[in-house]
Amino acid sequence: MQLVAQDLSFAYPGRDVLARVDLAVSPGTRLGVVGENGTGKSTLLRLLAGDLAPASGTVRREGTFAVVEQEMAVPEGLTVGGLVDASLGRLRAVAARVEAATRDFDHESGDLAALGELLAAAEHLAVWDADRRVEVALTRLGACRDRGRGLATLSVGQRFRVRLACRLAERSDVLLLDEPTNHLDDAGIDFLTGELIAWRGGVVVVTHDRRLLDEVATAILDLDPSPDGRPVLYGQPGYLSYRFAKDQALRRWRARYRDERRRADRLAAVLDRSYENLSDEWRPAKGSQKHRRATRARQHVKSADRLAQKLEEEAVEVPVPPLALRFPDLAAMGAGWDPGDPLVEVRSPRVDGRLDLPGTRVAVAPAGRLLVTGANGSGKSTLLAALAGRATLDRGSRRVGDGVRVGVVAQEGAPVPVGSTGFDAYAREALDLLASGALDPDHVVPVAFLGLLTEEDLDRPLGELSAGQRRRFDLARALLHAPHLLLLDEPTNHLSIDLVDELTQALRVTPAAVVVATHDRRMREDLADWPELALGG
Questions:
Q1: Which entry of 149, 331, 425, 496 is 20 to 30 Å from 446 by CA?
Q2: 287: pLDDT confidence band, cut at 50, 70 and 90?
Q3: How far apart are CA 446 and CA 452, in angstroms?
Q4: How far apart are CA 536 and CA 286, in angstroms?
Q5: DSSP characters for 358-395?
Q6: Does the pLDDT value for residue 476 go beyond 70?
Q7: Residue range 186-201: average pLDDT?
Q8: Where does 76-111 have alpha helices with state H?
Q9: Which residue has the higher pLDDT, 528 or 419?
Q10: Is pLDDT of 401 > 50?
Q11: More confident residue, 65 or 442
Q12: Is 62 left (phi over 0), alpha (psi -120 to 50) or beta?
């Protein structure tokens, strides 16, 4: 098997997506693909699979390919069993050929070499074990095992798990996966990790799961911007090696950019002074030595022009480096507050059908920390909504301190005002908070200060931004009023792994209180020294 892409580029109408991508995948290669939303990760998988034609460059494929995209179009009437049968059809056909060949083999005149090749192929694919493998995968991934169940009746996550189980059982030469851990619990992720490490062929996996990258990836392709505009391939295995190498590269890039800007400013000042010398201050008085006066002026203009040309020739084109998070300096508490009083607390909260914690008090003190964990559906989001005052309690109580400012990043994101730009929506939010008395005018955090979005992005309608950019804007809105308490529900969703690392570090050191609900395994590890509330256990 082999998968090779050379100088691969692609563009949608009006928007370039990928440019000059080079990669090679051979048996044993497990390539992780990372990058911001909108950098073309899913598009790259479709190009590698042959579902899209590149605008330029080539893709060479040898062997069989299996693709697991984030969403699945469901043909009408297709059942779980139908998908399993379609996936294992190739393996069953090989098994049937082996059975026929061995049954009809003529030991005197038969082609023993051809039979050996067929048996070797069947052994490589483990064709006689395929049905057991798919059953094990369905079970370990928590997928539906009812063969008669229609796929259209399953949720997106359930359909994804069924298809992933089928693709793992197929044993194709190359496995192309798009965010495979999004719909898996910890047990399912552990099973997938073991399958990928043992995969005999090649793997290309688009993921934001930093722990998966650390455990699985033999190399990482980063589609985020680089100084020369090309994606960067980091050839060392594991996320930590990639993170160290990229941090070093970013520091060099930013240092080069700062140096070039300083040099350009210095040279511009020299040029300005050179032209200023054409003023009357250095010239002979009018009416005296007229020809000498004109000659000196021309010579000085030529000298200044030569200097300008030289500066232009010597200039180094260093693109603007990517933004870095600048987390604001938040206060732990207001003047006159008793540090022993909680910022917010809920007692025995119940929201019918979503959360029930009888006899439980959840209190967040100034500068406090709380990590909320639990399986999907255990009530993590509802608990954070109750702490924020956004969920109506069917039982229990909520109390919040006077003057406590709370910043919230909800899992589903804030509503997007139709037609509003980021600047407009941020200003409207500030005015609403001022009108309600929830914003101290002296503590407004400017959105451009945070390094979450460029001014160009903030000037665009929010509806045109990618999911990752809107998630960044949600985080900016939560910080607008310099909150004393941050409530973050699945904060890693749709964010690049670079920003997740920066945000995690900021949350660890901010004086404000922080409550985080997350399924992200690496973030849970990074915050393992925080008090933990495990729901549903």
A1: 496
A2: low
A3: 11
A4: 92
A5: TT-EEEE-TT-EEEEEE-TTSSHHHHHHHHHT-S--SE
A6: yes
A7: 94
A8: 80-104
A9: 528
A10: yes
A11: 65
A12: beta
Q: Is 255 left (phi over 0), alpha (psi -120 to 50) or beta?
A: alpha
Rounded to an integer, what distance in angstroms lies between the CA atom of residue 415 and that of residue 531?
Answer: 31
Q: In the chain, what is the greatest distance between 2 CA atoms, to the nearest angstrom?
A: 119
Residue 243 CB partners (closer than 8 Å, separation 6+): 501
The one-character DSSP state at 65 is E
Dihedral of CA atoms 58, 64, 70, 73 in degrees, nearest 10, equals 100
**pTM value?**
0.80
Residue with tokens 């009408």: 76
Contact present, 369 and 379 (Cβ < 8 Å): no
Q: How confident is the model at residue 261 (pLDDT cuts 50, 70, 90)?
A: confident
According to the 3-state scheme, what is the secondary structure of 427-495?
Answer: HHHHHHHHHHCCCCHHHCCCHHHHCCCCHHHHCCEHHHCCHHHHHHHHHHHHHCCCCCEEEEECCCCCC
User: What residue type is assigned to position 290 of the chain?
Assistant: K
The DSSP element (H or E) to which 4 belongs, if any, is strand 2-12
Beta sheet of 15-25, edge-to-edge order: 15-25, 2-12, 56-62
